[in-house]
Every structure is written in C-alpha cells, then in structure tokens.
Amino acid sequence: MIRLSVIIPMWNAERYIERCVSSCYRQGLAEEEFEILIANDGSTDGSVDIVKRLQSEHSNILLFSQENAGAGMARNLGLNHATGRYVMFVDSDDYLNPNTLKPILELAEEKDLDVCRYDMECITLDTGIHKFEGYPIPIGRIYTGDELLGNAAVPFGSACASLYKRTFLEENGLCFSGQTSSEDVAFNLRVFPYAKRIMYSGICVYTYEIRTGSRRHSTDLKSHKRYMMNNVRNAALVKETALKNELISDSTRASLIRRANSMMAGEMLNQISNRRHLTRSVIAEMLNFAKELGIYPIRGGTLSRKTSLISGLLLNNSKVFKAIFRN
Question: Per DSSP, which regions of 167-228 are E strands?
C-alpha cells in the first residue's frame, strides 16, 4: 500500500536533485510505503540522467516529463499519477530533514486529516543565517480551513509545508492553476475553504535555501519589480478569495479583506524603505497593476489602526506616494 506520494517538480536541477531525492530515503519509511514522482518540466541539463540513475537504485521512483510549463503544471502532472493516500510537494533544490516525515504521516493517518501542516527552515547561504518558520497555532488541535483563513497570524503560502489527503484534493477538483507566479498562495486559498480537518504538527520537516542575490535583497531593478508585482498579486488573490468564495464565513471574509489590504500596504511601505532602488515609472506601473487587480486604493481597513491611518493619509494618495521616488 502506497501511503505517501512525494511530488518533485524538476527543471534544470542537476546540482540539487540527487540531494533532494536522497533526503526522502532518510525518513524511516520502507520503499514500498511511498513513491517519488519526479515531474520533469522540460529540463535541458543533466537532471533526467541523474534521475534515471537513481531509478536503477530505487524501485519507487517514477519519472514523467512535459514541455516547460512551470512548477504548478509540473506538480499537476505528478498529482495525475499519484497513488498515495497523502501527497506532498518538494522543490528540487530543497530537501527534507532526517526522520521527520514518518511521524507527520502517522499523525495525518491517525487523525484522518485533510491537511497536516509542518514547519520549514530557511537557510540564507551567503550569510549562514537560519530562520525557523513555525505556525502560530496550538499543536494538535484540529481546525477547519475557514478558521485558519480567518486567523490573520496564520500563513498559508507554501504548498511545500503540508501533507494533503489525495482523495480530498481529487473530490474537490483542487490542483494548481498553472500561473507562473503566486501558485502556492492561489493553491492554498482554494484548498483551505474545503478543508474540514487541518492540524499543525510542530515538526520541522522541510529546509529550503536562499542563495546570494535573492529577490528581496538584490539591488537589481528588475528583481525588485518582479518581487513587488508578485506581492501585489498575492494580496489581490487573498482579496479575490474573500469576495468570491462562498464557502467561507462572513467573519473570515472580513478578516481576509483586512489581511489583503495589510499585504498591499506592507508592500508599499517596503517600497518606501527601498526607494533608492526604485523609480517613479516602476511605482506607477505597480499602482496601475494593483488598480487593475482591485487591490488599490486600499479600502476596508487593515489589520492595524496605524497602517489604516497611513493608508488613508499617504498610501492612497498616488501623487504624493509617487513623489517619494526618484525620476
């Protein structure tokens, strides 16, 4: 019986894919209990050859290929072939911490969870700084997705921070949209309203790395712009869920609107702190994009009175806001 399907989207990952796959075999699970589905997203380097060699060593590695279409579509390819009771997503340049996956899987099975959340650790390679990303809710309590969406402190961004019951996803038609950015946020915003049994485990399963020149710390204008637009899109996705999803309660709807507004306000305040790297034309482009998505001007309040006040006095005045930046 396949208890778990590990889905790994892969694109030109010859430097990392063996480390990623190998970490799945240090979890205390017998090979017949899980499968590794590697979704090759049009790699042109030696990634596929490495996977084929690993297949000769392990009978539970399956390789599927598609033309390059992005990580979301690669994950869908894996989902289409998965047979495990639960599925999880691991990016090819990340890895699992030893002996953490078995207790997570046992917990999900015992409690019959739709979603089992776990912790992640981030390593910034150029500084060596470790950042532990926990979940701000009690360990062991079962929540509905509506309850967690209504809790402004709860993050829901990464699809790599959960086990998902496969039949739960299938029965509700839940998969990745195929958009090239914000795919994890969009996925979980669709998943959570359907979920009736979500638990936080408190176990740190996953490690991901940020390499030198990360988007937030880069001084490159294009990197700043890409990161900025992605954050605006995330805020808009949260607001769209609040306005259009009929499965969520009115209190959760109001909380999501405030969260979306806080995300937009927070990104604009971050732009002010990085203003030496940004131009007025880029800021104008961002504001126009936000208007098209319906997330700007910021209306309906934020998660704090201070931010709501700043939004009203400064952020919503586009002329004054743009004047802060250089030509």
Answer: 198-210
Show the tokens assigned to 252: 């959760």
- Biggest alpha carbon–alpha carbon distance for the chain: 64
In the numeric block, the tokens 């700084």 are attached to 129
Neighbours of 141 (CB within 10 A): 10
CA distance 93 to 12: 10
pLDDT, tens digit (0-9, with 9 covering 90-100), for 17-71: 999 999 999 999 999 999 999 999 999 999 999 999 999 999 999 999 999 999 9
Q: Which are the contacts of 265, defined by CB distance < 8 A and separation ≥ 6? A: 298, 302, 307, 310, 311, 315
Provide the token pair at 57: 């060593």
Quick one: how far is CA 55 from the chain centroid? Answer: 28
Per-residue model confidence as pLDDT tens digits over 178-224: 776 789 999 999 999 999 999 999 999 999 988 654 434 445 777 77
- Its pTM surpasses 0.85: yes
Phi, psi of 300, deg, nearest 5: 105, 5
Angle between helices 221-244 and 280-293 (to 10 degrees): 20
- Rounded to an integer, what distance in angstroms lies between the CA atom of residue 299 and that of residue 311? 9
Paired residues of 120 in beta bridges: 133, 206
Cis omega (within 30 of 0) on the bond before 155?
Answer: no
Tokens of 6: 């590990």
